[in-house]
Write the structure tokens for this entry.
Amino acid sequence: MRKPNIFGGMVVVSCCALAQGAISYEDVTRVDQGAVAYYNFNETSGTSAADAVGSNNATHGSGVTVNQSAAPRPLDFGGFGSGNVSALYNAGSSTSSTTIPTAVGMNTTAGSVSMWIRTTPGQADSDNGGLFYGRGGGSTGGDGFGGENELHLQLNTNGSLGFFATGNSSNFNNGSDAGVRDGQWHLVGATWAAGGQVKLYVDGQQIASNADTGSSTYNLDNNIQLGRLGTSGNFNNRQFGGNMDEVALFDTELNAMQMRDQYNAAVNHYTGADFVYQPDANGAIVGEAEIFSTRTNSGANGWVIVPTESSGAGPAATNVRNSAYIQSLPDNGSPGTPNGAPSIQYKMQINTPGTYQLYLRWDGNNTDSGTQGASDSVFVGIEELTGAGTDWYELNHGIDADFNTTAWDGTGQAEVNTASPAHNPVTFTVGAAGVYTLKISQREDGSTVDAFVLQPVASAAPTGIGPNMSTFGLEVEAENYTRRGASVLGGVQWKVIDGAAGTGNVGNGEDQGEPSGAKFANAQGDLYMQTVPGNSGETFFTAQGVLDGPFLDYEVTVPVTGVYQLFARADGYDGGSDSLYARVLEINDGTGGQADWYRYSFPADSDFDTTPWLGTAGFEKTDSGGGDVNAVWRLIGGQTYTIRFSPREDGVALDAFRLTLLVPEPASMVMMLGLSMLGVISRPRHRD
């Protein structure tokens, strides 16, 4: 094993080659789960729908319209690519259906189907709409409920799902309105097994089940149809109206974990929009302008980071806090609009309702020094307050390209767009705790912003260079993973545990948990993940074991370049369940440089609050504990990374994690040296 270069308590990092990762919905659904046919409906023209698994291409009827990209659609979720489109079905057209050939191979005693659908308002048919329909045993007709050997999944007029199978005593609805007819995208699915259970799912959650008292094979040896029920009788009144996408067929009965995995792979992709500034003990939030959550351009106009993305326009600003600032460019006289693009957004956690004052450290590019010039005004607002009192202001002052001249501007005029706004306190009234979005918008291009402070109105105004930047990072609940995988040894799995279910109960989880059905204390939001069973005997005490264990993957696109620290909220219940590994899959340099993995170890008292956020771990260690350092990586802004957790020992539980920006770039050497003085933090262990 290589020896890491450790400077005090921090690993001194350098840039290394990166592979941009991405976990797609299709990876999990088609590849991991072994679909026998998969139709992503990404065709831009024609009537053929390609089978991504094999050669069982489907055929659209003339009433189906392909290449539909109108929002909202699965592209809104990170698990779908930029070219993702869907097919539109018309409930009023007798030719609005898709035929899948019999060779797809669903002539089995068990099966599953999943798909994404979005209903079209006013497109509900007079009867229930067919989503998936199969028949066999020589049947040539049918409308979903006849004497033929039929099996189908339907969308009822009240927005619930229904399932029917001839000869196997399976004709039931979910009994309640699932809310699927709401014009939004939903993942729907059904699983069945002769002599077992039929189960219905919406958005990864089981909503209904019914005993299947029959034992015959579901002989789907005739063509399968999407979008309607059958070809005779009342089939014209049982058609689906809306968009359909990502249809997956299986010749096995998927379990509830797999259905959850499908949904998670679609929606749980984390970006800069999920990174939030946290308040200090006094409720103040301090942000560096170049450390943002998201930004929105207007054509060629946008906010850029100076000097890393551009050298800027006009004289370089002086007295910059962190060697970088933002500027609205190009500086060509383009006007902006209140709350409009080009804009840059900062997510902030506000814990205490009340009135807050904003102080902006900003200036212009000195093009018209000492006058009301062409870069001397900006708009600021809080998006979530729109329509609830004052939600935006215009700020204006003289410019000289020196952030210290008007170091912290806390005045402006509410909701005006004028050359000479008043100078009143910039205050916002927040009625409830939550995450809020500060938006800075261009009024005149060329303006520059260095930092901001949002604090309770009674607090003293910031002075000089101002207070240190607030914590900026991402917090993710463990059950909101992007992908999970099994152990190569075949036994231990990560499962969702419901901490509020009580001893011996599963509740809203997937397992009763260890030890022996007991629950860990103080799980955030009740749910957490645990590797079970906890007495399997599977351990992962070697470098190969780091690779072999069951895993939870979280796909994260970081907003800005810098050194990030990973904090794990985890624990065990005894000395044989209290350690896990964390990796960034795209960082695997082998010799020197950054950590290929860290080993975390915990108190083992079944209480997540004992060591609530552990940010120190063993650099590429596989032992039980000790010699811990800050668990950090240098990550590149805009790059996508996969954070992977795997157990060192079975029974370990993960409640949540935080990825926090520790040192933004460009950073001064003073900041780097200050971080290095944190020192090595080690914790002696009491066992092997």
